[in-house]
Every structure is written in C-alpha cells, then in structure tokens.
C-alpha cells in the first residue's frame, strides 16, 4: 500500500467558500501531482511539483493553486469554490533516482461537491 | 486533447473469460503504464512497459506495446469478479517532458460471477 494520504475524502460546501485539499506522503518522494477526474472519466493533470519550492501548472487550466513548502506536503487551495469545481481530486507522487520505477503512487482521492 | 484513447469504453464478461483492452497514444513515449481504479478510489499501478519492450507479463496480466502503431493492449486472463474496475493507460511522453504522465480515457470492466 502507498503511504500517501488525502484529506478530506469527501467535502460538500457552498459556493464562494475557500477550501484546501491536503495531500501528504511519507515516502520522501520529490515529485508530486494533482489530477482532476470527473466520475467515470479520464484524469487531467492540473498541478505538479518537482520538489520543495517548485510548482508548475498542468495541462488543464485550473483556478486552484498549490504550494510545496515541505517535501511531504502538497496542498491544493481553491480561494472561492464554484459548482464547476465539483469533481474528484487525486494526488500522486513519484520517487527519483535509484528508487524510480516509473510508477506513480496515488492517494484515495478527495471528492468535492460545491452547491 | 488527451494523449491516450482507450477502447472499448466499457466491457462486460463472464468470470473465467479473458478481457482485452486497448490504448492508443499520439506522441513518442518513454514508457507506458496501466493502472486500475476501483469505483471512487485512487489508482493502483499494475504494470509498466518501456518503449524498447514489446511484451511484458505479470501474473494474469499481459501487456503488449507497438510503438510503430502507437498502441498498447492489456490482457487479463481468467478474469475474476474482483477484477471489476476501470483500467487506464498512462504514458510518459518524451515531448511533453519527463515526469508528466498523460492518462487515457479508461475502460470500465465488469466481470460477472
């Protein structure tokens, strides 16, 4: 089992609220990713990080922001949630160097519903 | 647009039968991976095949890769009800830069007991 944790698993909030989705991994992985996935659909990369103080936007435009102050922590923030943000958000990580097998390790996901 | 297209989109088979799903991609790749996702959960890595490999086996899984056709297939032999899940291919593209993975549209497999 992968040691990567996402909280909350489920969140229902009203429009205009600020939310932060937490992602933590205890494997010491440098690379971390956020994907957005609508039910039964493909994953879209929205943010990624190569290490501390490194963040990049992914291929799908997103109004969310991320930070990477510590290796193990990669939170995603929405300043003002809207119904169009309703989706599942998946966090993943990947080691570098000799531990790199190419495999991505995923958390269980955070399902966000904005009313 | 997404790198990977998978077909079929959905597949329903009887327990014990083999399941084959296909993935096509558009750009040059370093490797191609297959992941499994149970409903409402995260993805779990199944198998990786590098661009210089043509076939790989892992237990009941067999993956093939044809870089000339930019396609891959995943075969699950002797399927079980517990194999019911969505299956995604993911490519690490040489043109999009390393460390970024592009996922396909997924195949939803249902294995009937």
Q: What is the compact description of this entry?
A:
The complex is a heterodimer of chains A (115) and B (113). Chain A is mostly beta strands and 115 residues long. Helix content of chain A is 0%, strand content 48%.
Approximate shape of chain B: globular
The biggest beta sheet of chain B is recorded as:
6 strands, mixed
Q: Mean pLDDT across all residues of chain A, rounded?
A: 92
Helix and strand succession of chain A? EEEEEEEEEEE
Order of helices and strands of chain B: EEEEEEEEEEE
Q: Which range best describes the helical content of chain B: under 10%, 10-25%, 25-40%, 40-55%, 55-70% or over 70%? A: under 10%
Most residues in contact, chain pair and counts: A-B, 29 and 27 residues
Beta-strand content of chain A: over 45%
Q: Please, what is the oligomeric state?
A: heterodimer
Number of helices, where a helix is a run of at least 4 consecutive DSSP H or I residues of chain A:
0
Helix share, percent of chain A: under 10%
Radius of gyration of chain A: 14 Å
Q: Give the overall form of chain A.
A: globular
How is the secondary structure organized here?
The complex is a heterodimer of chains A (115) and B (113).
Chain A: E1 4-7, E2 10-13, E3 19-25, E4 31-37, E5 43-51, E6 54-57, E7 65-66, E8 76-78, E9 87-94, E10 105-106, E11 110-114
Parallel strand pairs in A: 2-11
Antiparallel strand pairs in A: 1-3, 3-8, 4-5, 4-9, 5-6, 7-8, 9-10, 9-11
Chain B: E1 5-7, E2 10-14, E3 19-24, E4 29-37, E5 43-50, E6 55-58, E7 61-66, E8 71-76, E9 85-93, E10 101-103, E11 107-112
Parallel strand pairs in B: 2-11
Antiparallel strand pairs in B: 1-3, 3-8, 4-5, 4-9, 6-7, 7-8, 9-10, 9-11
């Amino acid at each position: 089992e992968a040691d990567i944790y996402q909280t909350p698993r489920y969140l229902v909030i009203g429009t205009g609220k600020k939310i932060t989705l937490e992602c933590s991994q205890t494997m010491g992985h440098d690379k971390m990713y956020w994907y957005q996935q609508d039910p039964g659909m493909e994953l879209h990369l929205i943010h990624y990080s190569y290490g501390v103080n490194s963040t990049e936007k992914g291929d799908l435009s997103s109004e969310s922001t991320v930070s990477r102050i510590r290796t193990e922590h990669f939170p995603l923030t929405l300043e003002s949630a809207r119904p169009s943000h309703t989706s599942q958000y998946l966090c993943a990580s990947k080691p570098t160097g000799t531990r790199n097998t190419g495999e991505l390790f995923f958390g269980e996901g955070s399902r966000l519903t904005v009313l | 647009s997404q790198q990977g297209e998978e077909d079929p989109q959905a597949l329903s088979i009887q327990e014990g039968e083999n399941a084959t799903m296909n993935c096509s991609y558009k750009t040059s790749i370093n490797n191609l991976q297959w992941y499994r996702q149970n409903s409402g959960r995260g993805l779990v890595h199944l198998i990786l095949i590098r661009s210089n490999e043509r076939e790989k086996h892992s237990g009941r899984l067999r993956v093939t890769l044809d870089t000339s056709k930019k396609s891959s297939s995943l075969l699950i032999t002797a399927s079980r009800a517990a194999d019911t899940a969505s299956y995604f291919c993911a490519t690490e593209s040489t043109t999009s830069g390393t460390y970024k993975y592009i996922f396909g549209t997924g195949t939803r497999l249902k294995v009937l007991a």
